[in-house]
Amino acid sequence: MLTNEIIRLQAEAQQDYVIESRRTIHRFAEVSGKEFKTSAFMEEEIKKAGLPYEKAGDTGWIAILDTGKPGSRIALRADIDALLVPEEPNNLAGPRVVVSDDPHTSHACGHDAHTAMLLGAMRVLAEQRDNLTGVIYFCFEEGEEDGRGILAMLNQLSAHGVDVCWGIHVYAGLESGKICVSAGPRMAGAAGVGIKVIGRGGHGSRPDMSVNPVFCAASILTNTATAWVNQITAGRTVTLGVTSIQGGEAPNVIPDTADILGSLRFFNDEEGEKAVRIFKNVAEHTAAMNNCQVQFDDRFCVLCAPVINDEYYSNLISTALPEVLPENVTVSSCEPWYASESFSCYRRICPSVLAHLGINNPSYGSGAAHHNGFFDVDEGVLSTGVISTLKFVAMLQK
Predict the structure, then answer these.
(1) pLDDT tens digits, one per residue of 226-270
(2) Greatest CA span in the chain, whole angstroms?
(3) Is the Cα torsion angle 111, 116, 119, 120 positive or negative in sign?
(4) This prediction's pTM
(5) Nearest 5°: CA angle at 305, between 299 and 309?
(6) Neighbours of 300 (CB within 10 A)
């Protein structure tokens, strides 16, 4: 049996390993599709743990711990890619403990910490095989930032018949060391916005002899804002994140086309789909009013569903964590995060829970927003992540 005492002792024994692993992966800082050194490092660590494994995509892995005894099939997931974000040598408080080897890339979202925590948990569980039941899948997902790795991972886990999936995301919006496993929406779904408004160009002195796509694009935005107020369901927030409207370059030339770009974020699947339909409907009818046409980019659709924690498993782990973590570490709730995550896709195949692990520590300097050059991870919280992962497995043992 994987007792609370064993969990705490084993997590403490892995602390130096987890920190060193995080720093190694941090130095690699490889972006989606190019996680070659990171992948090779993980493969070696899986081999050292004595586990069979299989490729998941080009650089991702699934290590498999089959106890040979009946029990739950549990997927534990971490993402491995970095970002094309130059890293500042300092965090918010001073020099950081480790810096990316590549001046153009960095782990500015915390995936290095996610991977290191899962490696630490993997080592403990491999050593505790005799105290476990069922099958545990250690999933190292490539390309989370651009979504390239999720389909291969889902296909393979579906074939394995996984019962439940657990993951952790470090979060700069939560006090360092706190962990939240609340049920319901935790991270936003996302839809891309891409509209090309097609008019007819001409001389700026005679707009009546042209069909001005710039005015049409502006009208699309104002009309959409009005539709948002009156058609998006009250209490179901959908953000209207239009970031660019571009048409023409000269002051005396009406262009042939104008482009609108942006994204939408939402916490309800149906409302996200409805928001895309509203936006497209407004665009088409506004274009008709202005004798224009519109073309929609392929990414003008729901790209990523919201992360919604399963109620049963969230309640189970929220009750279990205080048994093994210090008092007041587990928090009952924190505000849902408007960022998006491919972890949302795991609920297509099984119930899933994504924990938010706080890293906001002003004295350490780890409070900068994610995807920011000053972003850093308070390494003091990594053991909390390992303990929480081990406890998730332990509570599902027969």
Answers:
(1) 999 999 999 999 999 999 999 999 999 999 999 999 999 999 999
(2) 82
(3) negative
(4) 0.94
(5) 165
(6) 23
